[in-house]
Amino acid sequence: MIIRSINLETVCGVTSKLPENDKPEIAFAGKSNVGKSSLINGLMNRKSYARISAKPGKTQTINFYNINEQMYLVDLPGYGYAKVSASEKEKWGKMIERYLHQSKQLKAVFLLIDIRHAPGNNDKIMYHWILEQGYKPIIIATKLDKIKRSQIQKQLKILREGLEVLPGTEIIPYSSVTKQGREEIWNKIETEFLT
Ligand code: GTP
Ligand code: MG
Question: What are 85-104's pLDDT values in tens digits?
């Protein structure tokens, strides 16, 4: 994808009305701090257009990035952030659920999981929820630069088994430091979801 223009077009909080976009949307879900906003920056060739933070819980809204007036990359708040009250968590959860359920233009949900860790309960719930909603889940194993090359296959196996993925489920390793995996992700978006 050649990036000609990017624009943070819509920011939705808990009480906001969701936009009725007329172009395809690709959403990124995952635990807080897993690297969703960093991945979106990487895809857009920007360092910090999407706000990122070393502290979890940075993205608290649903952010729609218009790419080339052609499609949207959708940054979702992370789940499982311990420092947020239970009621706050529930509100975000509902907001994410509402979006995934209501959007007419959502074409795919990428689920991000840190390659260093076994998937948690929330990751499993999200994975199966994506499936139930009829989307083909694509998993991105983030922070690839944090492990040794020799560890990759072992970690991917832990990920596959932990999520109990369906046979043939794709997992794309990605690093926002080296940008390894970027082309593969764009390729997938362009060939499978924008045509
Ligand atoms: P929330 O908005 O809180 O849900 O988090 P997020 O999933 O958007 O994570 P974010 O992109 O803000 O990144 C969290 C932290 O992880 C930041 O300090 C990033 O610099 C770091 N990070 C993200 N991706 C990578 C990666 O591929 N490699 C390394 N080494 N660090 C990463
Ligand atoms: Mg974020």
Answer: 788 778 888 888 889 889 99
Q: Maximum distance among all alpha carbons in the chain?
A: 47
Residue type, 143: K
- Superfamily (CATH H level) for 6-185: P-loop containing nucleotide triphosphate hydrolases (3.40.50.300)
Q: The tokens of 116 are what?
A: 């260093």
Q: Ligand 1: which residue has its CA nearest to atom 32?
A: 143
Q: How many residues does the chain have?
A: 195
Predicted complex ipTM: 0.99
**Ligand 1: does its nearest atom lie under 6 Å from the Cβ of 41?**
no
User: Does residue 9 have a pLDDT over 90?
Assistant: yes
| Pocket residue to mutate for ligand 1, from 28, 31, 32, 33, most atoms within 8 A of Cβ | 33
User: Is the CB of 57 within 6 Å of ligand 1?
Assistant: yes
Q: Exposed e or buried b for every residue in 30-45, given b needs 16+ CB within 10 A?
A: bbbbbbbbbbbbbbbe
